[in-house]
Amino acid sequence: MIARPKSPEVSLSGMHRLVASWFGSGLLIGRIRGSDFGSGTVGAALTLVMALGLGWIGWWAQAVAALGVAGLSVWSADRFADEGDPGWIVVDEAAGTLLATIGLTGWPFLISFFVFRAADIFKTTPGVGAAERLPGGWGITADDLVAGLYGLAVGWAFQTWVF
Fold this sequence. Notes:
Elements: H1 8-20, H2 28-33, H3 39-57, H4 59-78, H5 91-100, H6 106-122, H7 128-132, H8 136-161
């Protein structure tokens, strides 16, 4: 008997989940502790290493990566938007991390990351909460991009005036 290939929908669903979990990093905490709480910070911290590596190539590589990952985030997260913003979806944090660190090095690089995470977690900075209310994958991603812009602004202010 000839085995029939899986339908493209099943494969595409798996690809959405793989990318949305930023290649599995968003599932680690849930597997270890049984809760997704903190998964966004794990995914963002792992992406920080990628951002640092891209910085050696140049700010333009970081910008291209941020744009590409933001697009992947909207695409992959949209499929799960009816669940709200599940903690295991961390590709949005990856996009925000990449945006927050464009062109930064040293302490400003780290400061931008911490400002981004604080803005994303607490959602008290203007625009972050409103962006989260956008529909579908746009809302899941946009709040992280707005938070990333806050991190980027603070990081550049430090890099320009302090360091």
